[in-house]
Specification:
Strand content: 5-15%
Number of helices: 3
Helix content: 55-70%
Distance between the termini: 9 Å
Shape: globular
Radius of gyration: 12 Å
Number of strands: 2
Structural class: mainly alpha
Number of domains: 1
Order of helices and strands: EEHHH
């Protein structure tokens, strides 16, 4: 079981997520992001805006994903 924070995954807070795989971790982070979007949390909305900019380039998004996955695996 590995643990990462919302900030480590590109978010805006110190909430932790624990999972066996990076895919599970990413799903938890995404669900948390959706919750924060629904309540209109400004810091998370800003982090989401940065992620949306990153997603405009599939190459940059893939690089980000692989970096985070390696970070997870190194834990």
């Amino acid at each position: 079981m590995k643990t990462m924070t919302c900030k480590q995954l590109g978010g805006a807070c110190d909430q932790t997520f624990s999972a066996e795989t990076f895919e599970e971790m990413a799903a938890m982070s995404k669900a948390h992001g959706m919750e924060m979007f629904q309540i209109g949390d400004q810091e998370h909305l800003e982090a989401m805006s940065k992620m949306q900019d990153l997603m405009k380039s599939p190459e940059k998004m893939n690089e980000w994903y692989e970096l985070k996955k390696r970070e997870f695996e190194a834990l």
